[in-house]
């Protein structure tokens, strides 16, 4: 069965300052660049047989994928795309504010951000799950590397098949969650993480 390697972008200036990004963007820090390179090394060391790569349309994810491809040239030769299903959840008027000042944990957004013009957790989750299944179906039998965002990864993990007694995996910048995709059942099963 094909595998999905779902990776979080490298650390950004906003991440380092504790600022909620959502649909906003900021540049990768030096640490973020190193995280992208380290993730590419991990893929190479674990003989990930990636047949296609894609990223969120947001600059921090696209830049992370570029750096990973430079560090692991085999990735650069794979079909590449940008897909809106991988974009971070939108938080409306609260984007750009300090995470510590938010009314609700952005990692578990629920419905709280709708009143500020943002997405609901249910809407984001549906978009992410349907989009990643579509990406896998577009590359039958191939492993896919998808570079995305922390909330996207958390929502997708929660929607996947996994041991419900298992705590959520770490979603640090540069982390990778590995899933197996069963195309016949249209189901993703969580296999483990690189943090």
Automatic annotation (TrEMBL):
CDD domains: HP_PGM_like (cd07067). The active site is at 9 (tele-phosphohistidine intermediate), 88 (proton donor/acceptor). Its EC number is 3.1.3.-. Substrate binds at residues 8-15, 60, 88-91. It holds the Pfam family His_Phos_1. The keyword Hydrolase applies. The keyword Isomerase applies. One of its GO terms (molecular function) is phosphatase activity. InterPro entries: His_Pase_superF_clade-1, His_PPase_superfam, PG/BPGM_mutase_AS, PGM_Phosphatase. Keywords: Glycolysis, Hydrolase, Isomerase. GO terms for cellular component: cytoplasm. PANTHER family: BROAD-SPECIFICITY PHOSPHATASE YOR283W-RELATED, HISTIDINE PHOSPHATASE FAMILY PROTEIN-RELATED. This is Histidine phosphatase family protein.
